[in-house]
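ligand=arginine
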Amino acid sequence: MKKQKIAVAYSGGLDTSVIVKWLQEKYGAEVITVTGDLGQKKELSGVPEKAYKTGAKKVYVQDLRDEFVEGYIFPALKAGALYEHSYPMATSLGRPLLAKALVQVARRERCTAVAHGCTGKGNDQVRFEASIAALAPDLKVLAPLRIWEFKSREEEIAYCERHGIPVSATKKSPYSIDENVWGTAIECGVLEDPMVEPPADAYQRTVSPQEAPEKPTYVTIEFKYGVPVALNGKRMKGFYIIDELNEIAGANGVGRLDLVENRLVGIKSREVYEAPGAVVLHFAHQELERLTLEKEVAHYKAKMAQDYATLVYNGLWFTPLRAAMDAFINDTQQTVNGLVKVKLYKGNVEIAGRTSPNSLYDTKLATYTQEDTFDHKASEGYIKIFSLPMKTFYQINLNGFAGRKRKINRKLKKRVSKVKY
Ligand code: ARG
């Protein structure tokens, strides 16, 4: 039989380390590891050395930071996509890109299969496999965690020790942590009890609001076509804007989320997030949209934001629906240009000012001073017609006691009279 060649999505953590060895042992496979740099700080150092030590034949570490920001994070930011109204989806947005990188390596290396280290009860397995199905429908996908013999982390650690795989760093943390430039997700350990407040050591990149500075920090963000282009007056690439905002907002205790969320697989899970940059950018972007989007577009877009978030969360990034929604959203962003000033203070982000060349805020219409140009008289006829359907309903059903309608009307009257005025 031809030797199997498998590309593994590799983080260097416990599970993916075991996978590299396990695939060699189980299938006699030649293993190639693929690690994507999505701006995670801690995780990347020492990854190639560790992969080779674990037995990888070839090691890929790819800088995906700009592609992640421009092609995945910014579309979600423009969409206003927050899963269940809160979670900015650092993990959910990263997976389709990692799947894409994995597929590219698998093709280049003529692999017979790819493998990922996601568990059988999470969202990430869906995101990986759905993305691979879209990009390489013929490629076999292995999910060792769903089939292997290990029942606990301890067993995996013992396996590593038997095979000389370095695990010291992963052994210590009681949490499962996933991290990239858009945010950190922290679960497991004591966090599994939703009644337990996250202990201080659960947080990785934000200070507690209590320990944040006594003075607020002001930040300005400039947007062009719905994406941030400058921070505090400095033009920067998207990645560095997020990176710097993570530091500034994190130092003010901004961006902590403690959520019970609905996984695609039906489980409710408790997850703690830190997404300082994402929280500030979503907030600022929304404030700018308040100023620049036409009313009906704004209302319609807000509904789409929910669908967009659910679609991304559910691993359907590479769908024609997402592409179609992006086309709509990009169209709305043509006028989302301008400057937003926010105030960061002890865990809060507040609006401190906004301005835009496309601002629809018309002082002459809004003012209550003499400058007012609004046609007050026009309101009278407008309200008459606007309220006509309601007026007609009440006239016919409550006041128009026409013979045979009496019975129906009595019932209706009872119901309607319960309404408090
Ligand atoms: N619940 C988040 C999601 O599905 C994050 C999953 C990964 N979390 C982790 N702590 N390893 O997008």
